[in-house]
Amino acid sequence: MWDVEQIREAARGRWPEIHNRLGLASEFQRRKHGPCPFCGGCDRYRYDNRQGTGSFFCNGCGAGDGFTMAAKLLGLDSRTDFLKVVEAVAGLLGITASPVPVAVLPKQHHSEPPKVDSQARERLNTIWNNSIPLLRPEAEPVKKYFLNRGLDPILFDLPGGDVLRFQPELPYWHGGQEIGRFPALVGLVQAPNDIAVTLHRTYLSATGDKAPVPTAKKLMPPIFEGASRGAAIRLYQNGTQLGVTEGLETGLAVRIATGLPVWSTVSAGGMANLIVPKNIKKVLIFADLDKSRAGHNAADRLAARLLRQGVDARIIFPPGPIPAGSKGVDWLDILQQEDHAA
Ligand SMILES: [Zn+2]
Asked: What span, in angstroms and rounded, lies between the C-alpha atoms of 226 and 159?
């Protein structure tokens, strides 16, 4: 979704500013030999910025272009995390990814093609295309929100801008009226055939709390009725294993604790109906422990279906008991308890 060459062109000549905003002090932006910002020494390093490409050279830890330097400053691997580096640079340049395929009709399998609600589609596209990656400095309310929930962004790799984005001023509608505009975390919900079908919104305050609205977390109407069946917010993916959670924040907690690729199904109903890709061999279901048993039942249904399909599925419950006065316990609660105990 990122046009790398477009971003490379846009960054040409602007690398010193980009690197500076990523934390490279101006003393390390000189053409003369000097100490390396990463591996020290006294004269092994030079920031030569050849033809405005942000290039640098170090006898100790190697040479590279502006993207390589940006990766080092972000603590990312310039090869395996290349797209994240590109995204961060694009964010600093004010470029957002090309539109997501919300507007694409799902593949027609059989019977009648589903009727896309063009108004719903338009609303989804407008919000998504006006939202920005979380790596952008403006996305501070989301970082504060994560921190308030015990999810320190230093401890995990923020999901990319193709999954989670920030919307600085999202209108909140209630009873047919707009009652205010709030910063919001926006998550892309993708159907089993990869098509983006709807958006999940978490309305926030500037200080990173939930916004003072009737329902701070909401799904938008999907592109057609039933389009969200089997869908999930694909927070992280790769490999043949998958961690599954209901909540988005629970998914991030599991990511911190296990490093697994994780998908959030948003709700218990979403978990019961989740469809995982054919290449997934093992699914770890990090279930919620609810008094209502909704989380338990949903995890059971998903596990049973996956096992029938030959997938190694396991349910992992958070340790109980459910505290008095609480509706349930999830893995984010457990992570928070451990933080407080530490
Ligand atoms: Zn070096």
From this structure: 26
Burial class (CB within 10 angstroms; exposed 0-12, middle 13-18, buried 19+) of 98: exposed
CA 24 – ligand 1 centroid, Å: 13
What distance in angstroms lies between residue 91's CA and the mean position of ligand 1's atoms?
A: 26
pLDDT in tens, 35-45: 999 999 999 99
Going from the Cα of 237 to the center of ligand 1, the distance in angstroms, rounded, reads: 32
- Distance from residue 43's CA to the centre of ligand 1 (Å): 10
Phi, psi for residue 336 in degrees, rounded to 5: -65, -40
Report pLDDT for 91: 82
Q: Write the pLDDT tens digit of every residue in 211-234.
A: 999 999 999 999 888 889 999 999
Three-class HEC string of 106-126? CCCCCCCCCCCCHHHHHHHHH
Q: How far is the CA of 88 from the centre of ligand 1 (A)?
A: 22
The conformational region for residue 180 under phi > 0 = left, psi -120 to 50 = alpha, else beta, is left
Residues, Cβ < 5 Å to ion ligand 1: 36, 38-39, 58, 60-61
227 phi and psi angles, rounded to 5 deg: -65, -20
pLDDT tens, residue by residue, 47-72: 999 999 999 999 999 999 999 999 99
How many angstroms is it from 52 CA to the middle of ligand 1? 20
pLDDT per residue over 97-110, tens digit each? 654 444 333 444 44
Enumerate residues 6+ apart whose C-beta is below 8 A from 145: 185, 202, 204, 208, 209, 210
Residue 48, CB-side half-sphere exposure with 13 Å CA sphere: 13
| Separation in Å, CA 270 to CA 164, 190, 224, 233 | 18, 12, 16, 10
Q: How far is the CA of 67 from the centre of ligand 1 (A)?
A: 16
Tokens read off for 325: 């006065």
Of the CA atoms within 13 Å of residue 15, those in its CB half-sphere come to 27
Give the integer Cα–Cα distance in Å for 228 and 219.
10
